[in-house]
Amino acid sequence: MGPPGSGKGTQAQTLVRDHGWVQLSTGDLFRDHIGRGTELGKKVKGYLDRGEYVPDAITVDMVRQRLREIPAGTRIIFDGFPRTVAQADALDALLGEFGRRVDGVVFFEVPRAEILARLNKRAREQGRSDDTPEVIGTRFDVYEKQTRPVVDHYQAKGIVRPVDGVGTVDDIAKRLRAAAER
Ligand code: AP5
Ligand code: MG
Questions:
Q1: Contacts from 137-142 at CB under 8 Å and sequence distance 24+?
Q2: Quick one: which of 16, 25, 28, 7 has its CA closest to 172?
Q3: Global pTM?
Q4: Cα–chain-centroid distance for residue 148?
Q5: Ligand 1 near 129 CB (within 6 A)
């Protein structure tokens, strides 16, 4: 977990590359559907463009579909999911269906100024549709309102492992590995 632009995707990919975990990124899955012009993609495009969350039912359904494709015994790193308390509850139920459970939650701590610098750089280089100043503002607001309580929810369970998310990608990957092994 972590705010928009805190490095969730970048770091999830290091677990895929170095440890063979499977990454399940709801943001990437939505962008893939939008890119392919699927029915789901058409339904969710507006939410992503505005920086608002896609409704829980649609999101959880998509996660269930994706979970079916992942072999039992493979470790999964969820990236950008769950993002609401309802999704966290749905995830527990869903994992139960697959004989899985949440082992731990990594939370990337990155100051707002550093995140803005990263997203502005990506806006210049790649032009992701939600990396405009206005939409970035909405993404932060939505995160504080809807996702901060999910962090608190997992904190109450004592399974949150904070990771300093500032530094080189490799340095943070080492911290992530240490946190994942803890
Ligand atoms: P999502 O795709 O999850 O976007 P996000 O969390 O807002 O932002 P990012 O993916 O940009 O951040 P990240 O933490 O992955 O960082 P990254 O590694 O990319 O969601 C997009 C939208 O989809 C949502 O707004 C919503 O509409 C919808 N959605 C997704 N999940 C949903 C859900 N569960 N429920 C409902 N709706 C949902 O890094 C950011 C940048 O920084 C990159 O350019 C990267 O190269 C760079 N960078 C990374 N690490 C470093 C470093 N150490 N130093 C310097 N630069 C770095
Ligand atoms: Mg991401």
A1: 137/51, 138/50, 138/51, 138/52, 139/4, 139/51, 140/3, 140/4, 140/112, 142/51, 142/52, 142/53
A2: 7
A3: 0.96
A4: 13
A5: no
> What is the rounded CA–CA span in Å between residue 40 and residue 139?
21
Q: Which residue pairs, CB below 8 angstroms and at least 24 apart, start in 117-120?
A: 118/5, 118/7, 119/4, 119/5
Residue whose structure tokens are 């608190």: 152
What six digits make up the tokens of 49? 């463009």
Residue 8 and residue 101: Cα distance in Å, rounded? 20
Structural contact between residues 52 and 138, judged by C-beta atoms closer than 8 angstroms? yes
CB-ligand 1 contact for 24 (6 Å cutoff): no
Q: pLDDT tens digits for 52-95?
A: 999 999 999 999 999 999 999 999 999 999 999 999 999 999 99
**Sign of the alpha-carbon dihedral angle for 80, 86, 92, 96:** negative
Q: Active-site residue among 8, 31, 100, 175?
A: 8
